[in-house]
Amino acid sequence: MPRLAERDWDKIPESEFVGVDARVLKDELLAPSAKVVYAAICARAGSDARETSLRISDIAREACCSRKTAQESLKALALRGVIETEPRFNGNRQTANFYRIIGHRAECYENRADSHTEQRLEV
To answer: Which domains does the chain have, with CATH numbers?
Structure first.
């Protein structure tokens, strides 16, 4: 069976479980749209790989948001350190970006006392 990251969105079984870091979902500094985008990336990556290549349009479709909201959410997730983004190119043309899930291991969660002084990352 191919890894989840290699399948099309439409082929992901409705009953398939998706692992999403609880610490990211509870993060009060991330907007709800960023959390849905994070969940969409987790669904595509699968729990074992924690990395995948995706187009913005696919993320937006799965997260039920606009491309702009998906892009802003990805920026907020990267700023928070819960994902790493690696742009991919075919010549001069950008293709699907590569996303690595850091999740609960992100540096922002190491010292929770500082989280109250930070501002919410709006999308």
So the answer is: 19-104 (1.10.10.10)
Residues 6 or more apart whose Cβ sits within 8 Å of residue 50: 100, 101, 103
Q: pTM score, two decimals?
A: 0.79
Q: pLDDT, tens digit, for every residue of 27-46?
A: 999 999 999 999 999 988 87
Q: Which residue has the tokens 């595509």?
A: 44
Q: Rounded distance, CA 85 to CA 53, Å?
A: 10
DSSP 8-61: -GGGS-TT------HHHHT-TTB-HHHHHHHHHHHHHHHHHH-EEEE-HHHHHH
What six digits make up the tokens of 26? 């509870």
